[in-house]
Structures are given as C-alpha cells and as structure tokens.
Amino acid sequence: MDSVDIYAGIIVTMLDIIGFAIGDVRIAVITDNILLLHIMFQLMMNKERGKEVFSAFFIFATMRFFNRHFFIGMISGIILSIAVFLIWGHFFFLAMPENPEQMESSLFPPQFPDSSKLSIQGKADDTWSFKTLDGKETRLSEFRNKVLFINFWATWCIPCLAEMKSLQNLYDSFKIENVQFLMVSNEDEKTVREFLEKKQFTFPVYLAKDALPQIFKSEGIPATFILNRDGAVIFKHIGAAKWDEKSCVDFIHKLL
C-alpha cells in the first residue's frame, strides 16, 4: 500500500507540472481521475475505509488518503519533473541551429490554400500606425487597394534572420507591382538600421509604434500575414519559411 501511495503521488505531480507547463487543462482532468482511482483502490484494499465509500467529500476534506507516503511521492514527482525538463532542454538547445545560415538550408515554403477556397481570417484595423526608420508616422490605411505582405521580426530572432534572404528575393520580384511589403520590428531605430546596413536588405522596414491589432497578435515570431486588396487577412504563417518559391509568388499574383 505504501508503494502505491508513492507511485500515485509521483504520477499526479508530474502530470500536473507537465499540464501547467504546456497549458493543457485536459491533463488536470486526467490527474483528478488518477486521484479518484487511487482512493477507490485504497477503499477496496482497506475494509475499514470501505465503510466510508459514500462519504467521499469527507475523505477529501480530512485528506485521509493523502498520507505521508503520498506526499513522498509528490516530492519525488517534482524532482523527476525537474530532471525531465532539464534533460529535454539540454537536447532541445543542442538541436537548435547556431546561426541563421544553418537554419536557412532547411526551410520549406508555406502551404498555401487553393485561391478558389480562401477564407477570411479577419480584417485589419486600418487606423493602426507605425513608423518608418526616419520617424515618419504611417497608417495601414495608406496602403488601401494594395495586397499587403506583413512580416513581424527582430534582429535577435534566428528563425527571422534565416528567412530574410528569401523575403528579399520575394520583395524584388514584386517591386513594380501593386504589392506593399511591411517588415515590422518593435526594436529601436538604431538597432534595426545598423542591421539593415550590415546585411544590405532593401525591403521596407517599419517600427511598431502602437499596440498590435488583435488580428496580428501571435505566439511567436517570425509571423507573416498576407492581406488582400480589401484589407482582409487571407493567409497567416507563424515561423520561418522559404518565401521566394514559385508557390508563394503565384499565390500573391492571384490576389492582384
């Protein structure tokens, strides 16, 4: 019985920690079920406690089944969870590319939807304002009736840097067409300008001035949004990609 208490404590604690780490409430439901099974097992194995089957609330209230062995299991679960996360973190960071060039060679173009089956994901707030590197305030409304290619990035973001060359190539292929590129960073002007001068990228870069419209908020960067000429978001991609492939060029051409 003591070993069962310890194992139950380990399992419940590790599942709770994992659920909290990944933000999945379904794991909490699993832990609740494990706790109930643990209590039912103890009731079946202990005749004296079997009399209290119908007073489960009292059992929980008095913490009768959460004895010292269960708490030993909980502590062990915490230690094991820390060990698992440390090991996972070690291999995760080892697997990460050390520089953009390493990552660039492994990029693939995004999966674009069929142009005849496009769904509108929302409409951008055209009052949203941002600044040019020269400090001029610009609003999204200034680019009405244009297809917009909006990319949120940062100079410290390796995946962002890995896709930069393909973004430059994509920009070059649409220079004389009715497509507006907005490469938006929330860093300071000096940092961004020095980066662009060093890398010699020529696509239009802007600095975030106000809070992002809800439609452009994402869990990470790079984050790319393509808007049709009506200002509706019809494509969204989170993460680095190879943007100069024919599939991307054709997709944008069909929006013009």
Alpha-carbon distance between the two ends: 71 Å
Low-confidence stretches: 50-65
The top-level CATH class of the largest domain is Alpha Beta
The ordered H/E elements are HHHHHHEEEEHHEHEEEH
The CATH architecture of the largest domain would be: 3-Layer(aba) Sandwich
Task: Compute the number of helices.
Answer: 10
Shape: elongated
Query: Please, what is the CATH homologous superfamily of the largest domain?
Result: Glutaredoxin
Q: The CATH topology of the largest domain is what?
A: Glutaredoxin
Radius of gyration: 27 Å
Number of strands: 8
Helix content: 40-55%
**Mean pLDDT, rounded to whole units?**
79
Written overview of the protein:
The chain has 256 residues and is of the alpha+beta class. It folds into 2 domains: 2-95, no CATH class; 102-253, Glutaredoxin, CATH 3.40.30.10. The protein is 46% helix and 15% strand. It has 10 helices and 8 strands. The protein has helices at 2-22, 26-45, 47-50, 56-62, 68-95, 100-104, 158-162, 164-173, 189-199, 246-253, and strands spanning 122-123, 129-132, 137-139, 147-152, 179-185, 205-208, 223-227, 232-238. The chain has an 8-stranded mixed β-sheet with strand order 1-8-7-4-5-6-2-3, with no helix packed on it. Helix 1 runs antiparallel to helix 2 and helix 1 crosses helix 5. It is elongated. The model is unreliable at 50-65 (pLDDT under 50).
